[in-house]
Specification:
Blueprint lengths: L2 H20 L7 H17 L23 E3 L8 E3 L2 H14 L5 E7 L2 E8 L2 E7 L5 E3 L2 H4 L15 E8 L2 H13 L8 H9 L4 H6 L3 E7 L9 H10 L9 E3 L2 H14 L7 E8 L2 H7 L9 E5 L3 E14 L5 E12 L2 E7 L3 H7 L6 E6 L6 E5 L24 E4 L2 E4 L5 H12 L11 H9 L6 H4 L4 H5 L6 H13 L5 H7 L7 H11 L8 H5 L6 H25 L19 E5 L6 H10 L3 E3 L8 E4 L5 H9 L2 E4 H7 L1
Parallel strand pairs: 2-11, 19-20, 19-21, 21-22
Antiparallel strand pairs: 1-6, 3-9, 3-10, 4-5, 4-7, 7-8, 10-11, 12-13, 12-15, 13-14, 15-16, 17-18
The protein binds 2-(butylsulfanyl)adenosine.
Length: 649
Amino acid sequence: MTHVQYLEAIKTLNTYAHHYYVLDDPITTDEVYDTLYHEVVDYEESNPAKIQSNSPTQRVGDVISEGFIKAPHLSRMWSLEDLFNSDNLQKWLTKVAKLSDHISFYCEPKFDGASLNLIYNDGNLIQAITRGDGVVGEDITQNAKTIRSIPLKISHLDRIEIRGEVVIFKKDFEKINLERAKQGESLFANPRNAAAGSLRQLDSRITSSRNLVFLPYGLGENILDFPLLSEKMVFIYNLGFRRPPLRSLAKGFDEIEDTYKQMVKDRDTYEMMLDGMVIKVNEVEAQEEMGYTVKNPRWSSAYKFPAVEKITTIKDILLQVGRSGAVTPVALVEPTAIEGVVVERASLHNFDEIDRKDIRLGDKVIILRSGDVIPKIIKVLVHERKEGSLAYVRPTLCPVCSSELLDEGALTKCQNLECSSRVVNSIIYFASKPCLNIDGLGDKIVERLYEEKLIKSVIDLYDLKLEQLLELEGFKQKKSENIIKAIDASKGKECWRFINAMGIEHIGEVASKTLCSNLGLNFIHTNKEELLALDGIGEEMAESLLEFIRVNEEYIQRLQSILKPQTPAQKIEAIENPFKGKIVVLTGSMTRSRGKIKTMLEDLGAKVSGSVSKKTDYLIYGEDAGSKYDKAVDLGVKVLTESTMLAML
Ligand code: IVH
């Protein structure tokens, strides 16, 4: 094969693959593809310096990573506001219509998978980043390259972020679980978990084998100059991406409802799981005017599909002991597929609920699954109950440590502070996201460290030595080092995390933040009066906190001296200026980004609002100001250019 033939072969193979994986319309046989592919492999083996980055061999995934590094998105990845019924939709549409008029909506399915941000520069895929917290995700570029519906090269040369959902088709999901069951491995709960898990494999050959599919749904940073989102999306599909099914445009409530109803009706017929319909304002300028709340774009929402019900049988009732000692029953049910998800457990909440519903072993029950949450039992089919079945008897002894349980009505509690389940769960909680957020110290690892007697309390985490971890089977150098590093990095974090992590009854994340921002580390010397004066702190919380401090003062001091939590910087009162305390609206394009101007105004004590009303004090406008400018003038609101605003300062 000559070099020219090699380049030609790559082109042909990529065309075959594009037809197969993107257009769903194969134009050749596996045999023809494989023969040419092997010729390419042979050429590359003899000419390693000439390997092209878009060669299909670059997708095999023979890269084994040690871990994933964090990577920032170029622009934020947002979440969506959920709508659950037509009332919600109506309200959302009214809100949207107030922000901008003459708009239409782009509707498409909400795919149930894992979101992924692809960054292309100079036409090359340079980075693939998971969503993470929306600002920073994990770099999984090597794994993304194994996904055949992600082009390695595109014909658009400017830097662009293409966002979409990585999904597993229902048929592949079933195959994977069947295979896992055969191998005695744990099953994936649903295609979303399977997709997310497959993306985060250290061995990209596993990712490659999972038949993941990328469905583009939007853009991050881009300089595409189309007035409509639907046009931008067509541009993206034409770069070589897969066109998701069922995209349509709708004008108002009725058309959106019709599209939604059709989607709900057809949801089972799609290859991938859908969990709702995403509605997006189609006009890019209107989107820009509407902007974003803290979490969501104002111009888009997710209209969720109704939950699905199924009949199954109660096989067993398991008992879990949480960090507070509360014993929670969970129903183990005959595995049942609901919308592609295999349900094996259903929540029972507490023993009163079992009594109320008279749930018995062997009962046929209706379970309901909606969204992510663990399914609920909504009804027992009493008429199908076999004769001789017995009512459920509440446990009297802790299923973990066998000490006597205290029945507090709705709650049944293990009183033993040293009950291993309580200790392990409190350490897991301590390390969890809303607490000290210790990366890599998940449930399994905490359980293992406890079983190996390396930790008996959270304080022991800080005495762990690398050598101790390395002695454990399955704890390789890198993994062990990462754990030690992550534990160390939990020092010096915000003090609310420290307060929250202690798991004080009735004191959750919000209360911890209130305590931290008002009292800082002095919370330990507080009194009831001072606590009750704080917004959101009630009698029960104050008493619980004071009692915890009374009993655990020494422990709190010790933990504090290890963690050295940060107290918040005092918020500085803005200096006097014409915008302090004023309501300001921004519109049109200015010399700096609107985000920057917004932050500057907020630092000056202004409230920056998205829409003009009688209450607006100033409208600051740039080039191409539209309807907001007209409305401000109509209402007699003062209008300023960007430079007048600066001059006033
Ligand atoms: S748009 C600016 N469209 O849903 C809007 N998201 O709840 C950003 N998702 O993280 C999202 N299908 O992973 C959009 N057709 C679709 C989607 C979709 C699935 C996921 C996405 C996002 C989450 C938001």
